[in-house]
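Every protein is a chain of amino acids, and every chain bends into a shape of its own. The protein below has been through that process, and both of its lines are reproduced in full.
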Amino acid sequence: MSKNYLLIYSEQLATDIELLCQNVKAPSNTIFQIRKSSSSIYANIREANYGHSKADMVSKFEISIKECTETEGWLQILFNTGAIDEQTFKNNRNLCGRIRRMLISSCKTLKTD
């Protein structure tokens, strides 16, 4: 059975963000929002694996794309305010970008099948 890298990467991101939130000093709203958006990526990808149809799967993936963009935005705010260092910012932003590109590719494939 092949590995589901989309699921693996999204779980890694959600876990990394949760750990980051436990150790960073930032406004509670920012912490709440980044936790929510990163965990939503993971949850929607898990749900998509058991979608009722291709359209349902695409819908969950498209929600995840939006949540990736939102997570990147919150990471940018945390970096801009000095709550996280540049390496933490880049590592998490790059993981978001990798997930987003995989999701976009998956959506294109599902829509053409």
In short: The CA atoms of residues 59 and 95 lie 21 Å apart. The helical segments are 5-23, 28-48, 54-80, 86-112. The chain has one domain: 5-20+28-112.
